[in-house]
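We now fix the convention by which a protein and its fold are recorded. The integers have meaning only within a learned vocabulary of local backbone shapes. A complete example follows; check for yourself that the lines match position by position.
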Amino acid sequence: MLDLVSIGEIPEEIEWFEEMTRNKMIYLNHAGTSWPKPEAVLEVADHVYQQGPAAWPNLFAEAHGAIADFFHVDKSRLLLTPSCTTALNLAITDHLWQPGDRVLTTCFEHHALWRNLEHLEHRGVQVITVPPNESEMVDLERLRTELGNDRTRLVAMTAACNVTGWLLPIRDVLELSQHANVPVLLDGAQIAGWWDLDLAELGVDLFTFAGHKGLQAPWGVGGLYVAPSHSMVCSKASCEIAGEADEPPMPGYCDAGSANLGAVVGLSTACRWLGDESRKNRLEKAQAMAAEVSKGIRHLSSVRIHHDVAPQAKMPTVAFSHERFSAATITARLASAGVIASAGIQCAPQAHQQLGTERNGVVRLSFGPVHEEQVGRILNELVAAMQ
């Protein structure tokens, strides 16, 4: 949000940030990174870095188990990675591909998924984008037809558009894909932490997530779940000793890179924090706030809300564009008033092409689970920023 500054100007920018914090800055970029992190998460992550090597194995094992329990899976099938981007890279590149194979995807993917599909095209794999229809983010009849092609090897898609928050029909896609015996890779970066996700019950073959978004963890941790029935093409790394368990192969830490132990333990603490009964309705509360903001600006003739659907059909996100002002101009004005939002393409250029917003992007307001109810102030600042 801030321009780059010289070293001599840094103290002034720090003072500006501190002043914003004192004035109860409103942070509306939770679809990008959650903030502020729960105090318990910050404390435990800091504590980890003060521990010696003798404590590291137990710290990792306990945290790994807690995170696997949060997703209702066996920890042997959950690889913790430095990011969701790393997890997506492994999930796609370690699939069995042959020239002439096909992969199905959508118009709303994050670049972290899309770039891997572009690389597959160089290997002779055909990437088929299933378009939306008037009522759904994925035309399910078109998907059914594409799944009928016997060269279709994978469906790779996001669970929610990170630009507008609109949820994709996950269960319908999974049902159709299972009927066609085609595995599904689900990018869960936007939904993980918001729902009680039982990945085994959901029936997804591959699932990736980012710790620093809805899961409330520090930067530097993500994950890849691989269903027990799903085999991947990954040779055992030379640093590993073969075990006795006869399980389908999946990537390991020599493939993903070293796990950020502080972030991993922070994520396990965040999972417990999210599981508290007092936070059971966090998604509904955040969706209600987003709906109030949408209602407050919907009547403005110069504003277009993108994917303006029912609150329960989307994540707690409001994405809009303005006839006269660019997204960058509006978010800069909001920032000067203490409201932090996202402007631009949000790392999803295909989604913006579909929305017709690739030139200036959108203003994205995304709410968090502990956001103070300040809708009145948000609406006042929004109206002021667009005058």
